[in-house]
Amino acid sequence: METDEQALPSVDGCCGDERKSHHTEKTKSNLISRLNRIEGQVRGIKGMIEKDVYCDDVLNVISSVQSALNGVGKMLLEHHMKSCVVERIQDGDTEVIQELLTTMNKLMK
Amino acid sequence: METDEQALPSVDGCCGDERKSHHTEKTKSNLISRLNRIEGQVRGIKGMIEKDVYCDDVLNVISSVQSALNGVGKMLLEHHMKSCVVERIQDGDTEVIQELLTTMNKLMK
Amino acid sequence: METDEQALPSVDGCCGDERKSHHTEKTKSNLISRLNRIEGQVRGIKGMIEKDVYCDDVLNVISSVQSALNGVGKMLLEHHMKSCVVERIQDGDTEVIQELLTTMNKLMK
Amino acid sequence: METDEQALPSVDGCCGDERKSHHTEKTKSNLISRLNRIEGQVRGIKGMIEKDVYCDDVLNVISSVQSALNGVGKMLLEHHMKSCVVERIQDGDTEVIQELLTTMNKLMK
């Protein structure tokens, strides 16, 4: 069954202007190719379950997808902190720290 | 770019016969629908990155995919332990314990 | 301020008999020496905070205590699974699986 | 066996001056009382192991110590980010971001 792109949270900032990320093309293609691989692995896990593959083998693929996803998260966090977070703090907008802490607590759960 | 199903480890058991999981159809469709949602979210994250969506919003979707994936892992682990692991131990095959520990250590990393 | 041993859950099994672990003396002394080191590090962290040591340095000691504690947990889990869990399953008492899953879910949080 | 305070990393900043944290007395006493409780629990775990308490009960105390330790880490991280990190970025010293990322990666492991 084909899956449509999941409806995702709209990104309009509360104060009307829209915050944007500004990755280089190189970073974007790196992130996209990692996510393509993750997407393929998730599809692969579905196939394993449909074919009644032994659970331990499926669990091992799940843990490698978790690691790959952590890798994407860490890469994004680094770019975010070295660009938007520094810029907003230098502009005097320290609200970004609480925003970052909230997101990090979810990632560190 | 369409991603082919990731080449996955072959599942031939060391002693020649092939270990299989034996989920009910209900469990299988539950797992598949969760994985469909995860696949859609991963595709959605790609779209967010292509559209330069603010990193914090992307990181929040990543952490919800991590939770969903953890949920699938825990569900599989429970089924595995309540079926294959118990059966193999009752058959005197305690090697399954070391196999389980190795997999759990990866999941608990 | 000296801290008394934390009041810990009583271990009387619901069915009156008391479940016991049965580690070798070697395992017990290994676990105790790891826990002595962890106790020393926790005391050290208190000292760092009292002396206003830079937070990043304190956070690094906290993460090494977390790793040491994970190591103790994994060691205990292995011993538990290779002794009590196998024995209880071979005795036909499969309740141990749900008990183990509940504990693992807390450790994997 | 009494444990001495663990020898901890010296805190001389690379550029000769010594970085300090600057917690309020209220924060410091909160952190110290949490660490006292953790120290007591670690001592309690040693007692459980010496008395051959059932492993599952010990594992449950370990997971609550892990949560308590995570709580201390998150509290320190928040204070660090809302004070030192903001101040150093506003002073133009963006090296603090890489320092923070390195520490966070260890905590998120």
From TrEMBL, chains A, B, C, D:
It comes from the Bacteria. Residues 1-28 are annotated as: Disordered. Pfam families: Trns_repr_metal. InterPro entries: Metal_Tscrpt_repr, Metal_Tscrpt_repr_sf. Residues 16-28 have a biased composition (Basic and acidic residues). CDD domains: SaCsoR-like_DUF156. Transmembrane segments: none annotated. This is Metal-sensitive transcriptional regulator. It comes from Paenibacillus gansuensis.
